[in-house]
Design brief:
This protein is an alpha/beta fold and 421 residues long. The protein has 14 helices and 24 strands. The structure holds uridine-diphosphate-N-acetylglucosamine (UD1) and phosphoenolpyruvate (PEP). InterPro entries: Enolpyruvate_Tfrase_dom, Enolpyruvate_Tfrase_sf, MurA_subfamily, RNA3'P_cycl/enolpyr_Trfase_a/b, UDP_GlcNAc_COvinyl_MurA.
């Protein structure tokens, strides 16, 4: 199993290009199922989750053509409407084929995702939303069996649906389903994440009629068919945020290219509060830091508040910052798996319920640690970059799910990171 070996204590300098966002690429690739003619996507990041999604689409009969960061999907001849347990267990985002399959083909069989390292993560709102649009939904043998065959013209029916919890992939699944429904769908308390907006923009290029993405009410006027289009995937704000915290912690000066400061306001504000200097243009962010930071309190919440996908990275930062801070996780019930591993590196953290109390220490120490999920792994990489001596991170396949060429990008900035088998 691959490991990452990091020699800590090097400051970062230079430029790094931010990749397309995993969390936008995955739903948009699934949206390819809705189009009757080829959908051409650019800036698709080279990630394990993207490879898994392309494999899943291929098993359904979608013709996939990948050249560098360009992917063309031809869903004119889809023959299978199933996402098996084997696929869904490697990647929860496979649930995003449910809405498109049902809307276009009137039938879908998708394995229920189980819980995962960060929480139980049910998909009840995806299911209830589709039910509200008239679909027959049954759960048997761990699979969601969905059908519209009893509906007029076998089409989902537009509906008003209020989601009592803000769910990102739930909003995306329902938005994709509603795009081909008969009539108007209104999604209330919708997720406002930039990846939802990117998906809506792509769907609109494909012929959908979606308004309000980026606000908490999304209105979708269903159309009879969607066609292909061309779309570049929005930049990955979480990848960008991770590099920003890296520079703040190690000290140095780095410019992120293809970054959108308007999508990272909460993160930028917290980094400034910690003492990093940040300057921006519309498509770049420069972080300058002495490496001496003040601890900052963090509370995760849906966009535009502080993202849960940046919590582990800020926890790592607070462990070596001056002062005491609280990190409150309000989205997932078990997203503190990095705490034990950071403690192995000398961090002083106490967890009570969904709150971690972090007391900054003078220095972290390199150690052998285990990556448990994607962002926990990112937090450990950041800790390793500033720790004294060598940090060995095991199970880094989690990182490969969501960070494109991580060690290459870090080394380009001067870090000393290598992969071992
Ligand atoms: C592929 C992708 O885009 N993943 C992101 C997406 O995950 P994902 O879309 O799975 O996360 P959700 O926004 O759905 O989850 C938010 C909360 O709602 C709960 N919930 C969700 C759906 C549902 O039907 N019932 C329910 O109770 C979840 O358990 C969680 O407590 O948003 C998360 C929150 O920003 C991010 O951490 C993930 O990186
Ligand atoms: C939790 C994440 O991803 P996923 O929803 O794909 O598990 C993440 O990107 O941090």
């Amino acid at each position: 199993m691959d490991k990452l070996i990091i020699e800590g204590g090097v400051s970062l300098h230079g430029e790094v290009l931010v990749s397309g966002a995993k969390n936008a690429a995955l739903p948009i690739l699934c949206a390819g199922l809705l189009a009757e003619t080829p959908l051409k996507l650019t800036r698709v990041p080279e990630l394990r989750d993207v490879a898994s999604t392309l494999k899943l689409l291929d098993t359904m009969g979608v013709k996939v053509n990948k050249q560098g960061d360009m992917v063309t999907l031809d869903a004119s001849d889809v023959a299978s409407f199933e996402a098996t347990y084997e696929m869904v267990k490697t990647m929860r985002a496979s649930i995003l084929v449910l809405g498109p399959l049902l809307a276009r083909f009137g039938t879908a069989r998708v394995s229920l995702p189980g819980g995962c390292a960060i929480g139980s993560r049910p998909v009840d709102l995806h299911i209830k939303g589709l039910q509200a649009m008239g679909a027959a939904m049954h759960i048997t043998h761990g699979y969601i069996q969905a059908s519209t065959l009893h509906l007029p013209n076998r089409r989902l029916q537009g509906a008003k649906y209020y989601m009592d919890i803000v769910t990102v992939t739930g909003t995306e699944n329902l938005m994709m389903a509603a795009a081909l429904a008969q009539g108007i769908t209104v999604l209330e308390n919708a997720a406002k994440e930039p990846e939802v907006v990117d998906l809506a923009e792509c769907l609109n290029k494909m012929g959908a009629k979606i308004k309000g993405a980026g606000t908490d009410t999304i209105t979708i006027e269903g159309v009879e068919r969607l066609t292909g289009a061309e779309h570049p995937i929005v930049c990955d704000r979480i990848e960008a945020g991770t590099y920003m915290v890296a520079v703040a912690m190690t000290g140095g000066e780095v410019t992120l290219k293809n970054a959108r400061p308007d999508l990272l306001e909460a993160v930028i504000e917290k980094l400034r509060e910690a003492g990093a200097q940040i300057s921006t243009t519309a498509h770049s962010i420069t972080v300058k830091s002495s490496g001496k930071l003040k601890a900052v309190n963090v509370r995760t919440a849906p966009h535009p508040a502080f993202p849960t996908d940046m919590q582990a990275q800020f926890m790592a930062m607070n462990t070596m910052a001056e002062g005491v801070s609280t990190v409150v996780e309000t989205i997932f019930e078990n997203r503190f798996m990095h705490v034990q591993e950071l403690q192995r590196m000398g961090a002083n953290i106490e967890v009570q319920g969904n709150t971690a109390l972090v007391k900054g220490v003078a220095a972290l120490e390199g150690a052998n640690v285990m990556a448990t999920d994607l962002r926990a792994s990112a937090g450990l990489v950041l800790a390793g970059l500033v720790a004294e001596g060598e940090t060995v991170i095991d199970r880094i396949y989690h990182l490969d799910r969501g960070y494109e060429r991580l060690e290459e990008k870090l080394n380009q900035l001067g870090a000393k990171v290598r992969r071992a088998h």
